[in-house]
Fold this sequence. Notes:
The protein has helices at about 10-25, 80-95, 105-110, 145-155, 165-170, 180-190, 205-215, 230-235, 240-250, 260-270, 285-290, 300-305, 310-330, 335-340, and strands spanning about 40, 60, 65, 70, 100, 130-135, 160-165, 195-200, 220, 275, 295-300, 345-350.
Amino acid sequence: MVDLSAGKASETQTRKADHIRICLEENVQFHNISNGFEEYRFTHSCLPELNLSEIDISTCFFGKKLNAPLLISSMTGGTEVAKTINYRLAEVAQHHKLAMGVGSQRVIIEKPEVADTFAVRAIAPDILLFANIGAVQLNYNYGLSQCLKVVEILEADALILHLNPLQECIQAEGDTNFKGLLDKISLLCSEMPVPVIAKEVGNGISAPMAQQLIAAGVSAIDVAGAGGTSWAMVESERAENSKQRLLGKTFGDWGIPTATCITSIREVAPTFPLIASGGLRNGLEVAKALALGADLAGLALPFLQAATESVDAIHERVDLLMAEISTVLFCTGNANLSALRDSNCLQPKN
Length: 350
């Protein structure tokens, strides 16, 4: 097990350590909103005419082949605990050829000596790897040079710009000037040598907002919808006063369910690269996300829980996820992910 206690650290490092501890120890999941996937059901095929051992769940994203349509979503970095977690996750990602994102790398800019907590490329030389920084930092003296730096340090294949206005509202130290960001994102996309991914952090991206981000030049969207970890609730647990605590609780169930994000964005952008994350907890939900139109499915908390235990625990979680996805394909009569998307075998319950 990983020791979650935090020693002396910077404000940003302390916040990151708090986030890990709270996600693992406190009830900060959405209470009244689900990810929306329970509203859909697969049509069972009693005679699939397939051999389970031949089911193919591999895919390609940004030109890299993945053995499964799974993204180990952005979680952490900047502390010794985070280093252990990232290294364990990277080892498993390399073994299974999965995609992986790291947590916000802003801490590297503030404190370069913690760069090694993110340095997973030596462990995972072949994986599809995403750097990560908050889009709002473009309004706080960050620009192309800082974004290039976090990509270079990580040797990343793409850069995630995470969008978290609600979380910033709840944080005592939150950065809340989001004015004019779309133009800055557009400029950054035109200058970056790697693809830029726009990602929410658990409150979802609407279809109209997706259209604006696509027009601005992002190369992919990670919807990160409501239904999983509520970062308003997480920040409520970190609150320094009653106002912050109550504000976080009031908005603990704010957001667009993940399934709704996928279906609405697919109506306006049928083929644009789309990642589904936000409350996915098993391979059945992953398969539903893919059938609704996502290209990859990102999970965070299930991998975080396993990573605090051991590398073997992560391997077991990945093996189970892959078996669950394969079982869905087999029992719906689909030999691969393309067939699943084209089969119309996922229907609303009502």
